[in-house]
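Both lines are retained for reference:
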Amino acid sequence: MMRLLFFFVLVSSISFGQKLISLDQIPDYMGKNVKICDKIYGSYLTKGNSPVTLLNVGEDFPDNPITFVVYAKDRKNFSYDPAEFLVGKTVCAKGKLVEFKGKPQIVLNSEKDVEIQTY
């Protein structure tokens, strides 16, 4: 079983081409392209003309250690509504780890930046 899990993580890392990090490693990788895997605990769609989807990763808001963000202009790049479909699922997301208002985030530009885990 461990061999299968190791193989899956190795193949996933290669296919994403990003360094897989844990939530605890976030401060060490700010500004770098990474891959983070964890559960989406909740979501929020901001108000206004260009609503932004905020996905709470690792815990629910306000205790989530990182947020995955989908801007209104990029929602068309998803075959599903990320705010509804991803909640409760464990996903891996790849992208540049940046800070917004003191909180780490990864901006998801398309469905290709997200891998839903099925194990």
